[in-house]
Design goal:
alpha+beta
Length: 82
């Protein structure tokens, strides 16, 4: 699934899972999934190519890394009754 609107997400915590993986906890509430040492190594080795592929996918989908105004808390309050 293509992740959009996540430009300003930060890592809050890293928790070891045994000796084989890490659990990453992000400030957008995402904390599912385990990241094995092998997968983290693959991400590091292929970061440039994977990043360029991600940006191309965003562009093809007409999406952006920028958060939506509602997610950023800049939405205007609705009138009563809506």
């Amino acid at each position: 699934m293509l992740q959009a609107g996540k430009k300003n997400v930060n890592l809050l915590n890293v928790e070891p899972v045994g000796t084989y993986a890490l659990k990453l906890i992000f400030d957008d509430g995402h904390d599912s999934g385990l990241y094995t040492w092998e997968y983290l190594h693959e991400l590091g080795q292929n970061q440039d190519a994977m990043w360029q592929n991600y940006l191309k996918q965003l562009e093809a989908a007409g999406a952006s890394r920028e958060p939506s105004p509602q997610a950023a808390g800049s939405h205007k309050p609705r009138a009563c009754g809506h």
